[in-house]
């Protein structure tokens, strides 16, 4: 005879009598047993590595920041590993405290894209699962601290959308040069690289001479046209590694990595001459305008952004005081060891 408090299979179909309840069997519920964090990492790694044939992998791919600091930043992927992290020298620089200096790296291995955690404090996660190393598939989310990146096809509509978002965040709307925020980030990054490797770095600050009378006489629309035309001239002279920006009003700046003082001055003189030789249409008539340029390079007393920009500004003010339409170099011992005039 069955025990009074346990129902037989035949009695399960019958309703319980008043005051009677089913017994609770103390056993492990169905499903996988809990895993420690290290086991989850190993399991995720095995899953990512074994699921390759069933996962969609784009022919050319990139990673793009879709949440957090550096929204819209993108890194195209190839066989050389792309290091992502907070360090100024990371290939994809994400300046957020939750991201390690060297958080992870991503690269292409034949037809496969791989990701590897670099011992980050906040473990690298793919689709919210911690990974030590694994493969990536189109659409995967990569979480680094409080920032999220997405692995997508380089030519996808979504990649182009994120690129447009990044352009809006980093470009000056009027001139399409970089904006001040992006420029200051680039200066910090290049100063860190130059000081670590002992390389030269020069900043040029450019100002349009007598620009206020142009706005007063011809209006701000005409003044905007002058700034756009000047930006076009600047673009003709900068190299791919240079950073040209509009940093405010009629003031522009160009950062010249791997450039000593002599070459920077030659660059500035060519730019100044090109602007002076160009025609700016104001009030229906061609007009001549000029620029003044201040130059400063890294030196023992200017190894941060504020000091470098201040030195270039001092040189610019001197160019203005000495009659405009000229290039001046801030005095002091430059990194190249040459005494400036």
TrEMBL record:
EC number, as in UniProt: 2.7.7.65
An MF annotation (GO) of this entry: diguanylate cyclase activity
EC class of the enzyme, as a word: transferase
SUPFAM superfamilies xref list: Nucleotide cyclase (SSF55073), SMAD/FHA domain (SSF49879)
GGDEF domain segment(s): 199-332
Source species, domain of life: Bacteria
PANTHER family: DIGUANYLATE CYCLASE DGCM-RELATED, REGULATORY COMPONENTS OF SENSORY TRANSDUCTION SYSTEM
Protein name stated in the entry: diguanylate cyclase
């Amino acid at each position: 005879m069955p025990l009074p408090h346990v129902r037989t299979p035949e009695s399960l179909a019958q309703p319980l009598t008043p005051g009677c309840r089913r017994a609770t069997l103390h056993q492990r519920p169905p499903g996988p047993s809990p895993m420690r964090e290290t086991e989850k990492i190993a399991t995720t790694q095995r899953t990512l590595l074994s699921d390759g044939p069933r996962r969609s992998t784009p022919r050319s791919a990139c990673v793009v920041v879709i949440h957090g600091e550096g929204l819209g930043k993108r890194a195209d992927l190839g066989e050389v590993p792309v290091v992502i992290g907070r360090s100024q020298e990371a290939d994809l620089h994400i300046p957020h405290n939750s991201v390690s200096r060297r958080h992870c790296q991503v690269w292409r291995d034949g037809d496969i894209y791989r990701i590897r955690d670099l011992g980050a404090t906040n473990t690298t996660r793919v689709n919210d699962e911690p990974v030590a190393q694994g493969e990536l598939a189109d659409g995967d989310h990569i979480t680094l601290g409080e920032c999220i990146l997405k692995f997508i096809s380089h030519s996808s509509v979504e990649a182009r959308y994120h690129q447009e978002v990044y352009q809006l965040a980093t470009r000056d709307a009027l001139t399409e040069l970089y904006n001040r925020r992006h420029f200051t980030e680039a200066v910090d990054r290049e100063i860190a690289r130059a000081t670590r490797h002992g390389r030269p770095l020069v900043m040029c600050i450019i100002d349009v001479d007598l620009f206020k009378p142009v706005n007063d006489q011809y209006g701000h629309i005409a003044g905007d046209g002058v700034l756009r035309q000047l930006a076009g001239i600047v673009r003709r002279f900068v190299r791919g590694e240079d950073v040209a920006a509009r940093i405010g009003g009629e003031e522009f700046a160009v950062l010249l990595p791997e450039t000593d003082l002599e070459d920077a001055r030659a660059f500035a003189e060519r730019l100044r001459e090109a602007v002076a030789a160009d025609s700016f249409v104001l009030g229906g008539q061609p007009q001549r305008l000029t620029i003044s340029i201040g130059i400063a390079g890294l030196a023992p007393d200017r190894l941060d952004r504020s000091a470098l920009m201040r030195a270039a500004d001092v040189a610019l003010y001197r160019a203005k005081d000495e009659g405009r339409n000229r290039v001046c170099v801030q005095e002091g011992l430059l990194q190249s060891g040459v005494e400036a005039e």
